[in-house]
């Protein structure tokens, strides 16, 4: 007569792990190892949900006691099991992850490791990761003044609120208008326009908020505004003017699925308008302007080919441009990152 396998029970497996953490001082290493071995057996025997619950509880208690390394590693393993067992992104599963992220300190590599694992788990439905998860990570890093990771998360989130919060952050990052506002505005608009399909909503919400901040009474840039015409706030900044017109032009881009021939039509269509817009404002901005920076040019090329279906320049064109630039006095050196001076 065969012996029946006893079903694992949470109230039998979790307390021994938590008791190690509750010691004074906590026995973090033993708790970490016991949690991993226990949940490995559970996952292998088809009890992934219980494994996730144990790892979540153990990681949470370790992080509360300042054990960032052990706690975050258990969090990473929790997210991996969620992926292996097909846990879908939902309000509940997302909250399980964000609770641990909120407890993970910003210093050191631990939060990034957990965030990377979480975004990877959530990327099955959305290549850049779950928008709400990215939004949360953007807000969390912005609160801790970690502007660079916050910027990427907010761009990946792509929500209306993401654009608004990104405007607040880039305005602050640029000294609240003390530095060239066009450079920071480009960081908040062009990546949204280069997405497939272009994220007009996020780009528009960014611009509306950013221009509002620049025009506030306390802003050193409040006097750059000249007039408003056809929904465009004309300023003394060529970059700000270009970005507003760029959003309007991308809104008229060919519908997804259109061929390059259909997009151009008989007169060049909106693709011609885009090329003329870029060319005109590059001339206005000059060789030292934001629109001449290498990173900006790369994004503009991506918009040209991906949104307006304009064939990319033929090979060797960069060499020709460099030669022409040197002949006519143009700069030959590389530009720094967008916003750098």
How would you explain this protein's 3D organization?
A two-stranded antiparallel sheet has the order 1-2. The chain is elongated, with a radius of gyration of 26 Å. With 341 residues, the chain is an all-alpha fold. A hairpin with a 2-residue loop joins strand 1 (225-229) and strand 2 (232-235). It has 16 helices and 2 strands. Helix 3 (48-64) runs antiparallel to helix 4 (68-84), helix 5 (91-103) runs parallel beside helix 7 (131-143) and helix 11 runs antiparallel to helix 12. The model is unreliable at 316-341 (pLDDT under 50). It starts with 9 loop residues before the first helix and ends in a 14-residue tail after the last helix. The chain has a domain at 12-125: Serine Threonine Protein Phosphatase 5, Tetratricopeptide repeat (Alpha Horseshoe), CATH 1.25.40. It has helices at 10-21, 28-44, 48-64, 68-84, 91-103, 110-122, 131-143, 147-157, 160-173, 181-193, 200-214, 238-250, 260-264, 269-285, 294-306, 317-327; strands at residues 225-229, 232-235. Helix content is 63%, strand content 3%.
């Amino acid at each position: 007569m065969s012996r029946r396998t006893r079903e694992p029970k949470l109230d039998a497996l979790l307390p021994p792990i938590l008791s190690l953490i509750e010691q004074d001082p906590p026995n973090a290493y033993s708790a970490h190892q016991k949690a991993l071995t226990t949940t490995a057996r559970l996952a292998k025997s088809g009890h992934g949900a219980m494994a996730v619950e144990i790892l979540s509880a153990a990681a949470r208690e370790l992080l509360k006691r300042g054990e960032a390394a052990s706690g975050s590693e258990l969090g990473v393993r929790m997210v991996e099991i969620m992926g292996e067992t097909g846990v879908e992104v939902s309000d509940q599963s997302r909250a399980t992850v964000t609770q641990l992220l909120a407890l993970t300190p910003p210093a050191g590599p631990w939060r990034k490791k957990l965030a990377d694992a979480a975004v990877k788990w959530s990327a099955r439905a959305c290549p850049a990761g779950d928008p709400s998860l990215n939004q949360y990570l953007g807000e969390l890093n912005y609160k801790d003044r970690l502007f660079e990771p916050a910027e990427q998360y907010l761009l990946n989130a792509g929500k209306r609120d993401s654009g608004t919060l990104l405007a607040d952050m880039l305005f602050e990052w640029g000294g609240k208008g003390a530095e060239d506002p066009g450079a920071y505005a480009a960081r908040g608009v062009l990546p949204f326009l280069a997405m497939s399909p272009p994220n007009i909503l996020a780009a528009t919400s960014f611009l509306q908020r950013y221009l509002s901040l620049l025009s506030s009474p306390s802003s050193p840039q409040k006097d750059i505004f000249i007039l408003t015409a056809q929904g465009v706030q004309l300023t003394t900044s060529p970059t700000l003017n270009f970005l507003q017109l760029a959003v309007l032009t991308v809104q008229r881009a060919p519908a997804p699925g259109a061929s390059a021939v259909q997009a151009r039509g008989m007169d060049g269509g909106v693709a011609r308008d885009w090329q003329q817009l870029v060319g005109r404002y590059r001339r206005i901005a000059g060789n030292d302007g934001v629109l001449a920076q290498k990173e900006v040019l790369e994004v503009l090329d991506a918009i040209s080919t991906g949104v307006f279906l304009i064939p990319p320049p033929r090979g060797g064109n960069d060499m020709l441009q460099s030669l022409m630039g040197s002949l006519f006095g143009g700069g030959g050196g590389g530009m720094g990152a967008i916003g750098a001076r």
